[in-house]
Amino acid sequence: MKDHILRFIFAASIFLSAFLLFQIQPIIAKVILPWFGGSPAVWTTVMLFFQVLLTGGYAYAYWLVDRVKIPHQSLTHSLLAVAAVALSLGLGWLWTSPVTPPASMKPLAAASPISEIFILLLITVALPYFILAANGPLMQAWFSRLFPGRSYARLYALSNTGSLLGLLTYPTLVEPYQSLKHQGWTWSIGFIVFSLLVVFIAIRNAGSKPPVQSGSKGDSGSSPPATATKALWIALSGSASLLLLSTTNQISQEVAVIPFLWILPLTLYLLSFILTFSGDAGYGRKRYLLLFALSVGLLIYVLFQMKSLHVFVQIFTYCCYLFSACMLCHGELYRLRPEARHLTAFYLMISIGGALGGIFASLIAPLLFNGYWEFVVALALALAVWLRVLQPSRTENHAEWARFMLTVFLLFTASMSLFGRFSGALFAERNFFGVIRVGEVVPLNTREPAYQMSHGTTVHGMQFINPALRNLPTTYYARESGGGLALLNHPRHGRGMKVGLFGLGVGTLASYAQAGDEYRLYEINPSVIALAEGKGDYFTYLKHCKAKVTIVFGDARISLERELASGKPQHFDVLVLDTFSSDAIPVHLLTREAFDLYLKHLAPDGMIAVHVSNLHLDLRPVVWQLAKFHGLSIASVSYPGDAKGGYPTDWLLMARDTAVLDVPAIRDHADRMAGYRTAVPLWTDDYSNLFQILK
Is residue 445 situated within a structural domain? Predict the structure, then answer.
């Protein structure tokens, strides 16, 4: 076979493996996101899994190239690829597609579901992903063996280009037009094609001898990189990984948990790899030193003005900061690259650094910090790189540079851990689902102190400390708010009403309960449950509730599905959906399939009350489309707030029976949305688009 054809097949294999490697991440994350409450931590956990598996793949490639004879290299890798194809076809026979696990694998409620996510991913995609992860360094090593006169750096850039396109095509060409089942089969067919290319190359590699080229740059005689250099590879790669994950977490917490906002930071991360490894012209120290300084200045401004700035300004700022910081880290990695014979070790160290960054962000930081302080640690590491690059002479001493990075990391980790403990909050706790804080405040237009629970920048409930005001419903739940009107004016009010509530908060709505009522409260965050039940004696709504109260731990939709499957429809008179005030909303609770489930649990004259107050998102068109599809009457209730702790708030009330919404108390405060129209399509489990509803 002619050399140029073989080189093309090598390039096609590397490109396709990288494309598939990064496209599977948003596919599988979207599948399992609703199973774990739509938490932003699902994405970072998925990324951690893939980073660890990537390291395993790179270690396997390193072992295969350095420790195994060439014919056995080809045989081993071919057999693994064939095994991965056989497994995928077997899972495709059992499931709707090889990479979309069935609903029967949905986990039980767990306070920290990282292990459950890992098990799901191990069963579903571990072996194919492992083969894909190993392919890049392995093919580049085989390429360098067969074509020693050609640079491998451009193949690395091609690999990252494939990764970038794999990410970009998902939200633009794949997600909007294909169901998850079709996405899974399309990806699996691509993997089969890739495996055929791998087996072909392996056969060619096993049966050929590399050309002898005199005067080639001392591959065989070059000394291995020093330990300090390897440590610096790990430090720079780990810093970039922590920058990626902490920035993604920050965006997800403050904006939304959607594939595009996972993909955007990862795209910039990969773009920095592509630019820096495309050649010396791709990374100019001076311009990126300046860009980083400007982006950090803008970042500091945004962090202090977050609530007053449009979401696009925030996203733009985070992206500029992430890109400039990753350019510095990856640009310096490129300057430290070894000769071709040591490239598998280079890739292995890079992947170890990436995995360490992921382990710190996903596993260690939640134990050390009671807030998302790893964002500050990552910023400190980026500044440390920036300071070193400002002084080019100091970048030559790799041992000193690595020690400097380690010192900065340890110093800021310890400082942020202590800072969180003395931040002034009465209570602060971080878990898989976010950071919950309790503080003492004096609400606007009042003189009464109150305890307030917040999740990030969003208030999730407040209760006055004064005993005479302890049972007063506050914040979004005042008597004339949509939630208050629904509970006070349902036909069964005072006659043994059954209420379901998604999102417990501090339990404020329990203040409306009457003797004989039954309140069933669904909550996924164990910290919220503990506080609402009286931990710290901050909140007492549940303690003084007159109704029978049942708290169901876990994702509300999954819990309702299991109750229905066991023959126990709840027949709610009022079902309150109060999980959308945070910016990171659980999209899976606002789909056609979700509302079909809710209606099966609703009494014939039942009412659904949806709290749609949100800083960045206008949820009215989404809920209106759901009401229209299911033939429900709908009314919008906007409450301006009051001087008794009531916040300005927006609710949408829905019912099968129009008469339920026509009672005077609701009619006098509601807009029936008679002339309302929207171009936003109906959301389903296969389709949703948060960008269409950004304010």
Answer: no
Residues 318-364: pLDDT tens digits? 999 999 999 999 999 999 988 877 877 888 899 999 999 999 999 99
Tokens of 217: 């740059």
- Residue 165 in any domain: the answer is yes
Residue 218 has a pLDDT of 39
Residues 385 and 240 reside in one and the same domain: yes
Residue type, 601: H
Q: Where residue 41 sits, what CATH number does that domain have?
A: 1.20.1250
Q: What is the number of other CB atoms lying within 10 angstroms of the CB of residue 423?
A: 13
pTM: 0.84
Please give the Cα distance from 264 to 248 (Å, whole number). Answer: 9
Residue partners of 45: CB distance under 8 A and separation at least 6: 114, 117, 118, 362
Do 265 and 394 have their domain in common? yes
**For residue 257, which phi and psi values (nearest 5 degrees)?**
-100, 90
Structure-block tokens of residue 604: 């014939």
> Is 339 or 646 the better-scoring residue by pLDDT?
646
Domain boundaries, position 169? 1-208
Q: Are strands 633-639 and 670-671 parallel, antiparallel or unpaired?
A: antiparallel
pLDDT in tens, 397-415: 999 999 999 999 999 999 9
Distance between CA atoms of residues 537 and 222, nearest Å: 67
pLDDT of residue 252: 75
Q: What are phi and psi of 26, to 5 degrees?
A: -70, -30
Distance CA 400, CA 410 (A): 15
Domain count, the chain: 3
> b vs e for 666-676, b when ≥16 Cβ sit within 10 Å of the residue's Cβ?
beebbeeeeee
Tens digit of each residue's pLDDT (9 = 90 or more) over 157-214: 788 789 889 988 988 888 878 888 999 999 999 999 999 999 999 988 887 665 554 4
Q: How far apart are CA 60 and CA 76, in angstroms?
A: 11
- Assess contact for 623 and 612: CB atoms under 8 A: yes
DSSP class of residue 362?
A: I
Residues 6+ apart with CB under 8 A from 27: 99, 100, 170, 174, 180, 183, 184, 187
